């Protein structure tokens, strides 16, 4: 829903309330789950985005273009990224696999997404390690060797991404995720009251858009 109506601007001007209401959903979920750091980080980026859009009419030339670019990027992408952060931080790989199998999703879809669940947290840990090691040597923004950032931070990070992706793919296959048989799982999954509430809300959004479209 966020990808369609917020990131893709599907509703347009037909239903102007869809974008702000849907954008608020991941932030409410973060607060309910006490993920305050992610909530504050997302709100900060949204404030920057809407601030740029507010300043854009008063600017000209290149500053006007940059304000429009930054404002459009943050207001469209932040809510979707925050929703992804909430999903990754609150859903284990086992729960995700169990849910996808319950929904009869093919392995060609489930396995890549499962690898991504492990990929981004691992990449973040690698980046912090590389950045910390290079910062001690003055290779950082504002450091005495700032010109070497690309060679000593970006290039190693690219190599780590390729290596980690291959290792996670092999680990997934070695655990039998590609076996075309019914798997057992000890995770307790299923719909609860709050899930039905969110589903009804999404259905209401789609129906509102269809009514305005017709």
Gist of the model:
The chain has 214 residues and is mainly alpha-helical. It has helices at residues 2-7, 18-32, 36-55, 61-90, 93-102, 107-135, 149-174, 193-213.
Describe this structure in words.
The protein is mainly α and 214 residues long. Helix content is 73%, strand content 0%. It is built from 8 helices and no strands. The longest helix is centred in the middle third of the chain and has 30 residues, at 61-90. The two termini are 20 Å apart.
List the helices and strands and how they pair.
Blueprint: H1 2-7, H2 18-32, H3 36-55, H4 61-90, H5 93-102, H6 107-135, H7 149-174, H8 193-213
> How much of the residues is beta strand, in percent?
under 5%
What is the alpha-carbon Rg in Å? 21 Å
Q: What structural class is derived from the secondary structure elements? A: mainly alpha
Order of helix and strand elements from N to C terminus: HHHHHHHH
pLDDT under 50 segments (min length 5)?
Answer: none
Mean pLDDT: 82
Biggest β-sheet description: none
Name the overall outline: flat
Number of helices: 8
State the helicity in percent bands: over 70%
Topology, number of strands: 0
Taking the alpha carbons of the first and last residues, their distance comes to 20 Å
